[in-house]
Structure formats: structure tokens, C-alpha cells
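This is your field. Have a critical look at the following sequence-structure pair:

***
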Amino acid sequence: MKKKTIMVIMAILLSFGILKAEMSPAEAEMERVRQQYGEKYLVVGTINNLVGIGTLKVKPDIMVTEFELKTEGSTLEQASNENAKTMTEFKKYLISLGIKSEDIETSRYTRNNETVQGDKGKGRYVTKIDVRINSLDTQRFYDVMGILEQEEISRLVKNDYGNYYTYTVESPVTTEKSSKQIAKDKYDRIEKKLRGAGIGNVEIASYNTAEAEPEKKQVYTVTHAFRVRMKTSVDMGKVLQKGQSYKIKNPGRITYDISEDLKKKYTLEAYEKAMQEIVDKSKVILRNRGYEVGDIKYINDSSPYWNYNNNSGSGIVMMQNSGNFSADYKAASVDIPFSVAQEMSITVTLTASYDILKLKR
């Protein structure tokens, strides 16, 4: 029985298709109107190119920013281990705020080594005594060099404009007091040995105690930056304070965005608003004229776009300074005031055409 019913329906549909194929275009249009609107209506025209615009204000619910830590160490392994430990602890803190692990990603990771100079001063001094020996012949020159080499002095220079030689007594880098004493003791030892060797005419030409030049040292650095995507409900001020307690810096750039769920929700509402505007326009046009609005003949959809600060485009971006703090900033001492992101907007534009209907008399 079921099989027989299906065959009957197929026969009716087939005969209707053959009948429609035999109609003229005008007859086919009349048949369409009859089936679409029934026997009571005539299609007497078309309302073309009605435009509806739906615009909604939306407050961003997502912000994206970076946190960066630069760690120094005497070896690359030390710098890397300390950096990894600190960033792991900070990541755990972010996760405790409800931020998903997949929303915390490495945006930059670099390892480097460089030669740097330390700070000048800080109790580091050197004393230099320039000594002059007058009237020194060739044989006596080698006797003097032998005595100087015992004190690790390897330079004895003859002055081109006078018959004398000079050498320099220099202390190691130490405190100011020790530097002066060591240089004096060294000078006295040498002077005593020279007199014992029969070499006189020894005098101090200059004396100077000064801060030592900065030491050069090899420093290894590891820099690791996280890009974090979080809800705007997160207290960014407290996050910045926590990062500062780890000496983690924020570059001061925040990008605001809208979550996919919110985009979908407001996009549909914008479409609904644009469509309602078209319907309202069509009713106003035909009001009190004896006509009614039929079905949509066609509709054109311009891609929706998001807009911030009157700059249209598909991007949803806003930058705002979050503040950058020095290393000696005391995180627990003050709350960081943080301004709320401004609203964005979505705009949907639709263009539609309708049948114009009139009741048959």
C-alpha cells in the first residue's frame, strides 16, 4: 500500500512538471503567484533595493597582552633555569585566575651572551708610581731590568730627550688604603735593591691613586615572553603587580578583542535589526495605498564589519598603555588604576526587494 501511494505522488509531480514545462513565461509566473499567495492576490509590482542597516555597540570581553622576563646568569644554563622557574610560577598564577593554558603561549624566546663592563668605583682603586733613574749606562740597564723583573715589572723606557729611564710601580686593584700601601712597599723594595746594586739617582716622577677601570665580564641572558589572552573581567592591575614582584615586565601594549561567542551573538542581532528596518520601510511605503507587502524576491548581504573609533575594517584592535614600571617598583604598595576599553560596533547592511500584492476584486 505504501509503495502504491509513493508511485501515485510521483505521477502527480511528474505531470505537474510536464504541465509547467508546457506553460509560457507569463503563465508560469501566474502559476507561481497562485501557488505562493493563493487565489486572492495579484502581484502588481516590486519594491526594489530597500536598504536596512543594523548597528550595535559591543564592549570587548577579551584583552591580549605580553609579559616578558629577561634573566642574567654567569652561565647560559643558570640563566635558562632561573628564567624557566620564574615564568613557570607566573604561568601557574595566571591559570589560577581562570586563564586557559592554551591562551598562554610563547611569543618570543632568545638566548644571548655579551661582554659587559661592571660599575666603576665601589671600593676598587689602583695606585701608580712613575720612577725615574738618571745616568744609566748599558751594563747598568740589564742590572736594573733584573731587579724589576723580580717585582713583575717588564718595562723600562728610555726618554728620547734626556739621559734617563722610567718604570712604573703599580698596585693590584683593591681598596684605596691597601692600594697605596702595596705600591709604596713595592717601590721601597725596588729602591733598596737598586741602592744595593750601586745604582743611585732614583726619584719619583709622579704618583696617582684613582678608581680602577670597570671589570669586563661575560654575561649570559635568556629572554622569554608570553602572549596572554584573557577576559576583560580579570583585574589587570593586580596581574601587573604580580608580574612586577617577579621582575616580569609588561611592554605596555594591550589589544582588545571580542570572543567568538559574543561575535556570533551580536552579529545575529545586527542582522535581525537590519532586516526589521527593511520590513518597516516596506510597510511605510505601501501604507494606506491598498497594497500589501509580499515575500522577498531577493536579498543582498554585505559582509558585516566591526568598527572602533570610526575606523571600519575586519580587524578588532585597540591599543592602550598599561604602564611600565622600574625594577625597584614595590608591587604591594599601590593599586594600579586601569581604564576600561571603549566600545566597538558591528554593522550589517542588507538590500532586499519585495513583491507588491493587491487583493483581487
User: Anything to note?
Assistant: The chain has seven helices and 13 strands. Helices lie at 2-21, 25-37, 76-96, 138-150, 176-196, 236-245, 260-286. The radius of gyration is 45 Å. The longest strand covers residues 41-58.
